[in-house]
Specification:
repeat, single chain, TPR_2, TPR_rpt, 70% helix, 30 helices, TPR repeat
Length: 611
């Protein structure tokens, strides 16, 4: 470039005045036209302050090297006073505070550092570490609440660092806040990969809170992940031993008749080992004996499911013990359905009783007593044909049971009465004949058939039936009009003392004797079931106190309980009463029973008929 151009540039530069900065204006205002500050740029105030701050900083670092941390803090503080925007000064003072175990001051300095440079994660992590150290010191002094606050701050700054969480968990445990500790571990299990150690840890927390069932399932989960986990296996074995001890105590209490205490013991066993089918079976039996049928059915269903899901042989076959347990659970389940139906029947809730008995029949189709009981329920509802069908099914299963014969006799007599009322005398006579076949010792059956035969002008047969009725029940005043019509001009003594009457009596007695010898009222239940449910003779009916039953408050409550039990149960993937006797009159007009005789308990022998 030519000198001319340089001159022109210089002139142009001189022609353009330079605008002084605000700092220069301040200096000019303070010192006037003195040019000392203009020529000695190194003597400017900001440089002097910076140099002095650096001097204090170096002095502080020398003090740190000499382990004089208090002097170092003083030096760093002076440096910060001169230059409060320098991050390294706060960091140095914070580290000096840290050496003096002044965690609060160190945390304040690092918080300011994080404010000045929020993009640097290293400062944030260092602040979290300071909170961790502060919390650890609180722990050593037994100040667990303050320690928990410090660890919480550390976790907030570095949430993915597990040791901070563990120390927080230790503080929660020391403070007895096991529920909060469980929530913390649960969050780990949900957010991280599950591990046997975490499940074992949560199991121990549940154990501290006396939540054995949750503890059990956590231990099972831990062993599934690590079958050789010694801590989980040791705690699980301890719980199983405690469960077996409680079961033995429950059996002892049950034998002594203390059913409520036995229920408490077996409930403890179930909580300690909630996958043992035998425990559910025993508790279901106790619930049934205590008349808590809903709980009994739930437990017995669980017993069936657990025994079905139990251990199997490598070939895929169930062990004999598991098969026997499942069979026992099925038997007890059927008994409970039946007993619940008995309870409903005694309160007059026949529809609910039918639902329960239908469920029991679905579980065990070869038990005649269930069909007898359901037939009696249908009978009370005046569903004669359904009752007859159930009685006939019971007879097919147990053809020699006289208890069933008595019911078949009653139902045929009842059907005969309806046919008689409809003026269908031949059909009525046939029904009465079937009733006599099933129970030849009832005078009313003969009297009813005699009336039907007399309407058909079959007088000779009608007279024989009238004689049979008179022989069986000579004090029955209702027979007098019939006898006077069939034997005009003869007194009752003449009729009863006639040769024909003696012949009829002999035949009648022979027929009744043959009937008695042919019947064997023995239940077809298995021996095991017979031992579980004591039998009672029909003669003991009047000795049973009905007040031992808990009355059902309302039909709506019973109906809702039955429907929920049978239709709304959720799956896992976890000597009883009999129905009261029917009281049926044998007149041409069937009437309801008004007897106040107490209810008695039977073993699958139905509800009884007063014939």
């Amino acid at each position: 470039m030519s000198s001319k151009n340089l001159c022109e540039m210089d002139v142009s530069n001189e022609a353009e005045p330079k605008c002084p900065s605000s700092q220069e204006l301040a200096i000019q205002k303070l010192f006037g036209s003195s040019i000392i500050f203009k020529r000695n740029r190194h003597l400017r105030g900001d440089r002097i302050i910076k140099d002095k701050a650096n001097t204090h900083y170096r002095a502080g670092m020398e003090a740190v090297d000499q382990l004089e941390f208090e002097r170092a803090v003083t030096c760093f503080t002076k440096a910060i006073t001169l230059q409060p925007e320098q991050t390294q000064f706060y960091v140095a003072r914070a580290e000096a505070y840290l050496q003096l175990c002044d965690f609060k001051s160190a945390a304040l300095d690092y918080k300011h550092v994080c404010f000045l440079e929020p993009q640097k994660k290293a400062y944030i992590h260092r602040l979290a570490f300071i909170y961790y150290l502060q919390g650890q010191c609180y722990c050593d002094q037994g100040m667990f609440f303050e320690a928990l606050e410090s660890f919480a701050k550390a976790i907030e700054l570095k949430p993915d660092f597990r040791p901070y969480h563990m120390r927080s968990l230790a503080c929660l445990t020391a403070l007895g806040r096991y529920s909060d500790a469980i929530r913390l571990v649960t969050n780990w299990l949900e957010s991280d990969t599950s591990s046997a150690d975490l499940f074992t840890l949560r199991a121990r927390l549940h154990h501290q809170l006396n939540q054995p069932m949750l503890c059990y399932y956590d231990l099972k989960a831990a062993l599934r992940l690590n079958p050789s986990c010694p801590e989980a296996r040791a705690l699980l074995e301890m719980m199983e031993q405690g469960a077996e001890c409680s079961r033995q105590q429950a059996v002892t209490k049950a034998v002594e008749g203390e059913l409520s205490d036995a229920l408490g013991k077996i409930t403890t066993a179930v909580e300690l080992n909630p996958e043992n089918a035998q425990y559910y079976l025993l508790r279901g039996i106790l619930y049934r004996r205590l008349k808590d049928f809903t709980a009994a059915i739930e437990d017995l269903m669980l017993a069936v499911e657990f025994s079905d899901d139990g251990a199997k042989h490598p070939e895929g076959e169930k062990p004999e013990e598991s098969k026997d347990l499942e069979q026992d659970a099925h038997i007890q389940l059927v008994l409970t359905y039946n007993d619940f139906a008995v309870h409903c029947f005694t309160q007059g809730f026949y529809s609910e009783a039918i639902m329960l008995l239908t469920k029991a029949i679905h579980e065990q189709r070869d038990e005649s007593g269930l069909f007898i009981n359901r037939g009696d329920c249908f009978f009370r509802q005046k569903e004669w044909l359904f009752a007859l069908a159930d009685y006939q099914q019971a007879e097919e299963l147990d053809p020699q049971n006289t208890t069933i014969w008595l019911r078949l006799a009653v139902i045929h007599n009842t059907l005969g009465l309806h046919s008689y009322e409809n003026l269908n005398f031949q059909e009525a006579a046939d029904k009465f004949s079937v009733a006599i076949k099933y129970n030849p010792g009832v005078a009313q059956y003969y009297g009813n058939r005699a009336k039907a035969l007399s309407r058909m002008q079959r007088m000779e047969e009608a007279r024989q039936d009238a004689m049979c009725a008179l022989i069986l029940d000579p004090a029955n005043d209702e027979l007098v009009p019939l006898l006077l019509r069939l034997f005009p001009g003869c007194s009752l003594s003449d009729v009863i003392s006639s040769g024909t009457a003696q012949t009829v009596k002999a035949q009648l007695m022979e027929r009744i004797q043959t009937w008695k010898l042919a019947g064997f009222p023995v239940s077809r239940l298995s021996n095991k079931l017979e031992r579980m449910v004591p039998r009672h003779d029909t003669d003991s009916q009047s000795e049973t106190d009905e007040s031992t039953q808990d009355p059902v408050r309302s039909k709506e409550q019973v109906s809702e309980a039955v429907k929920k039990l049978l239709h709304q149960r959720l799956s896992l993937s976890y000597t009883g009463p009999r129905i009261a006797p029917l009281c049926i009159t044998h007149n041409l007009e069937p009437a309801a029973c008004t007897s106040k005789r107490p209810y008695f308990w039977r073993n699958f022998s139905g509800m009884g008929l007063n014939c």
